[in-house]
Every structure is written in structure tokens, then in C-alpha cells.
Amino acid sequence: MAAAEGGGARGCPAVPLASGRSIPVLGLGTSHQGGYSHDAVVHALQKCGIRHIDTAKRYGCESLLQKAIKESGVKREDLWITTKLWHSDYGYENTKKACLESCERLGVEYLDLYLIHWPDACVPGKSNREVRAETWGAMEELYEKGLCRSIGVSNFLTSHLEQLKEDCVVTPHVNQVEYHPFQRPQELVDYCRSRDIVFEGYCPLAKGEALTHPSIIQLAKKYGRTPAQICIRWSIQNGIVTIPKSTKAERIQENCKVFDFTIAEDDVEILNGMHDGRHVSWDPSLIV
User: Catalytic: which of 59, 90, 143, 202?
Assistant: First the structure.
């Protein structure tokens, strides 16, 4: 990982993508769950050095983010903005229209990363595979035109990625999937790496479930850190682009302070060994 230009979140490195761009390894996630905090986003950008914001049409806060970014004073070219296409907009023409609408709500002329949010298409009379291929064809066009600097998918498993490989031309640059000590899909991570797809992890704190686990609390005491910092640092040390969510300024500050310590290999293995397969978010395993 190379150090990000401009330093990022206090020395935040960036991970190179096959698109030729580099994504900051730590970002700020947003969500429709738990509300949205304008002040927290401004604080993250102004005070914490966050330069990577992750959102989605489904979260309903793209236009709110435009206001927060403007207020922060951070230049567009210094930011990495990811948003996602919801399944109600899948299909070739719909995808292109939805991308332009997201850009308009965000107040930007291009997206750094645009993701297909979910592998299930829910289109009557068409298979998921057919709709995903059609949708990805539009994503490829948006990428070629420069409207999306990088393109990818979210919640895709190996089977979904294999189908896309057979049906399309451009390999996704990123796959964003649930990743935390209880959900560490190493086979999927290895598959993505074998195809130069950068693995990005959401829910790094397992929606708070990881923060009360005795082993994580013990490691936090050992390193003089918080349980959240242990989880985020572990994820980053495993080579995962990590996007914790918070609407509290002090929590965002805490989540950013993960670049001045290293978890020893033995302790990484303790955390790796906590995988039990549980999901705290959506489970895509039943989607064909």
C-alpha cells in the first residue's frame, strides 16, 4: 500500500486498483440505518483527514453529502466518493440514468467508484444473471466515458463474479462485502485477489457485536486501544479497504487513529480464528 497523496486520514495509505486509481484504505461509511449526521461528516473531512466517503442511492443521503462536502471546504479532486446502484435501477438504460442522477444529487461531475449494490435483480421474466450482465454492460460504458473512474460490485460471491467474467469484458475493480472478525470470507478474498479485484469490507465492528467480545476487549487492553480500533486495524492489516460507519464525531476520530500501531501476527491469528460465519447484514448466499 502506497501512502495516499495529501496524507489522508493521518497517514492513511491508498490501495491501487486495476483502473489505475488508488482508493484510500480507510473510509467513512454512511447509511439509511441510524440516521445521518451532517456535522459528523464535516468533522470527518475537516478534523480527521478523511478523504474517502462511501454512500448509496438506497441510503437517501447523497444530496445531504453534497452540502457537507461543500461546507468542509475539501476540494473535489482530493476526495474519493463511492456510491451504489440499487436494484430498482438495474438494466442498461436505467443504470446510466441512475448514475447521472446520483452525480447530480452529490453535486459531482464524476464518481470515483460506482458499485452494483446487490446481486439479486428482482426483474420479472429475466434471470438475475441476465440482468447483472446487462447492468454491468452499462457500468463498463460509464467507465469508458470517464463518468465513473472505477467500477465494481457489492455483496457478490464467487459464483456471481464467475458469471460476470463469462458475460462481460471489464473485471470489477472492487467487491465490497461484509467483513469483521465473525465474518471473514477468506476464500472469496483469495478469489478476488487472484483476479485483481480489491476487497472492501463493510460492518468492520459487526454492528457493535465485536466490541463486547472478551478476546477483542483483552487485545484492546494489551495495545492500549479501543475495541473498535482493534477491529479496524485488524481489517486493514488483512489488506481490506475498510469503511466503518458512525454519526458521532468522537467515534469517527477514534476510528481514524489506526495508523500508528501494528497488531502482532499472533494476535491477528486470534482475531482470524473468531470467524463463525454469522452475518450482521445481508446474506447473499441464496442469490443465484
Answer: 59
Active site residue 59: yes
* 3-class DSSP assignment, residue 95: helix
Q: Residues 113-160: pLDDT tens digits?
A: 999 999 999 889 999 999 999 999 999 999 999 999 999 999 999 999
> What is the pTM (predicted TM-score) of this model?
0.95
Strands 22-24 and 80-85: unpaired
Q: In what order do the strands lie in the sheet with 241-242?
A: 28-29, 52-54, 80-85, 113-116, 151-154, 174-178, 198-202, 241-242
| Residue with the three cell numbers 464467487 | 158
Write the burial class of residue 271 (CB in 10 Å: 0-12 exposed, 13-18 middle, 19+ buried).
buried
Q: Exposed (0-12), middle (13-18) or buried (19+): which is 61, by Cβ within 10 Å?
A: buried
